[in-house]
Structures are given as structure tokens and as C-alpha cells.
Specification:
globular, Jelly Rolls, 11 strands, single chain, 3-stranded antiparallel sheet, 8-stranded antiparallel sheet, binds fe (ii) ion, alpha+beta, 6 helices
């Protein structure tokens, strides 16, 4: 990796007035809700049907569909691109970056997980995995952004270095971002037996020169085990040019999957 320092865990703050993700997500999920006013962390009290997330039924709750199909989502994606330009891109040295086109929405309801609970084979660490297990490239850097207060029962648990297994709960607040090497640092959830609900999104970024080191043959095979969809530039990823400050869905090396549904695009993410 061109910048090995990016594999080190890093916590930082951002301006929630400029990047008002929590309000945008509130509007998406609750803008047309006619019941009593609810904070995001009390979404579970709406009483929507739910199931424990599993490998075969991930990203498939009422709230995921509400988010990915919302007419308000393009506004959030506009702020997301501004966030990439302003906050994330300066952390990378290349002039061109490969960026997850749409952040993956997560909701961690009570008595549930935010990632498939049945992967990893460790009953006390539901969802234990690293993203490389799901065909994500080694050179990818993860950003994890919660919009509600996190607690040990509703947050991401992460080891500090690959193989160290010193799992710690990432107790962040709205306005904070965790950067980590999710490709190789194991992470998991707990069954949320304390409540309240956690709402977050996460995305992945890499220097274009690192992307270019990926074997093209392997690139064409980059598909999740679950969905058989391609993690390609033009679909899952977009290209950002620092000089022009433009994003493009560059199609070189693209393997078409004939599906541009935003919910499906999000569903190809690693857990
Ligand atoms: Fe992951």
C-alpha cells in the first residue's frame, strides 16, 4: 500500500453543520412519519417488522428499503461527495482516488446486529469478519460514520491490528469518523441487548495507484460470495479527480452487471 499509515486506526471529527448527515437521514427515515417525534436512536419504537440480519438476508429491513429508495437520497449523496472532497480526499496522496460510490447504510436495532449475525463462526462475536473475506482489496481503507451515540452493545468492535484479536467497542458520537483497515482488521458486532438503535454509514476509499496494482484478472473476479456482483469502478466504486474536483464512473475494466439499483449497489458491500 502506498500509504501504510492509513492502515492505522484514526478517529477524527467533522463539521456537522456543513455535513448534516444525521438530519438528512432523519428526513429520509422519518420525514413522512406521522407519529410522535422520535430521535434516530428510538427508530425501533416505530414497531416495523424486522428479522435478525443473516448472510442471506442482509440490508433487507424496512429501514434499508426506506433509505435506498428515498427521493431524498440524492441530496445525501451530494453532501457525501462534498464530504469526500473536503474531509476524506486530503488524507490520500494520489491525485485520483477510487471511492465507494454510495455509502453503505447500517442500522443496529435492539436484539439485532447491523451486519450478518451468522457469519464468522464465533457465537460471542456475531458477524466476525474482515472485508478481504468478501473479496475487498487489501489496499482499501474503511471509514465508519455513526449518526447516533454508540454504546458497546450497538457499535462496531474492532481489533487494532490484523491478528491481534484485542477487540474493543468503537464508542463514537455523531460528528466523529473512524478510519480503519477493514480489509484485514477483524471486526464484529454484539447482539444489541441494551438498546438504543445505532444508525451509521460506512464507505471505502483507496489511492488510484493502489487500485492499479490489483491484478486485472482478479479484479474481474471481485464479486461477493453472496450476490455474485462485481466490485468494479463504475459500479461499486467511482473515481475522484482532485484537480477537477469531479467524480466519474470511469468504465475502464468495467464488468457490467446490468443493475444500477441503489439498494442492490449497497448490498454488494462487505458486511
Ligand atoms: Fe466489514
Amino acid at each position: 500500500m502506498k500509504q501504510p499509515e492509513l492502515t492505522k486506526e484514526h478517529l477524527f471529527d467533522y463539521d456537522t453543520n456543513r455535513f448534516h448527515f444525521a438530519q438528512l437521514i432523519y428526513d429520509i427515515l422519518l420525514g413522512d412519519y406521522e407519529g410522535p417525534a422520535l430521535p434516530l436512536e428510538q427508530l425501533h419504537t416505530m414497531g416495523k417488522p424486522s428479522h435478525v440480519l443473516t448472510f442471506s438476508n442482509d440490508q433487507n429491513l424496512y429501514f434499508h428499503h426506506k433509505y435506498y429508495n428515498s427521493p431524498r437520497l440524492p441530496m445525501l449523496l451530494k453532501v457525501y461527495r462534498d464530504f469526500i472532497k473536503t474531509v476524506i480526499a486530503p488524507q490520500f496522496v494520489d491525485s485520483h482516488l477510487v471511492v465507494q460510490a454510495k455509502p453503505t447504510f447500517r442500522i443496529h436495532l435492539p436484539n439485532n446486529t447491523a451486519i450478518p449475525a451468522d457469519i464468522g463462526g464465533d457465537p460471542i462475536r456475531p458477524g466476525l469478519h474482515c472485508d478481504a473475506d468478501y473479496n475487498h482489496p487489501d489496499v482499501e481503507v474503511n471509514f465508519w460514520v455513526p449518526f447516533t451515540q454508540c454504546y458497546p452493545s450497538n457499535t462496531l468492535h474492532l481489533e487494532s491490528q490484523p491478528g491481534k484479536r484485542d477487540f474493543r467497542p468503537m464508542v463514537l458520537s455523531n460528528g466523529q469518523v473512524l478510519r480503519f483497515w477493514g480489509a484485514h482488521c477483524l471486526h464484529h458486532n454484539q447482539m444489541n441487548d441494551q438498546g438504543p438503535t445505532r444508525v451509521s454509514f460506512d464507505f471505502r476509499v483507496m489511492n488510484k495507484s493502489d487500485w492499479d496494482t490489483i491484478d486485472p484478472a482478479w479484479l474481474k473476479q471481485m464479486a461477493t460470495v453472496q450476490h455474485k456482483l462485481k466490485l468494479t469502478l463504475g459500479d461499486y466504486y467511482m473515481l475522484y479527480n482532485k484537480s477537477t474536483q469531479q467524480f466519474s464512473h470511469h468504465c475502464k475494466n468495467r464488468v457490467s452487471r446490468g443493475d444500477t439499483n441503489p439498494a442492490s449497489t449497497a448490498a454488494i458491500s462487505a458486511p
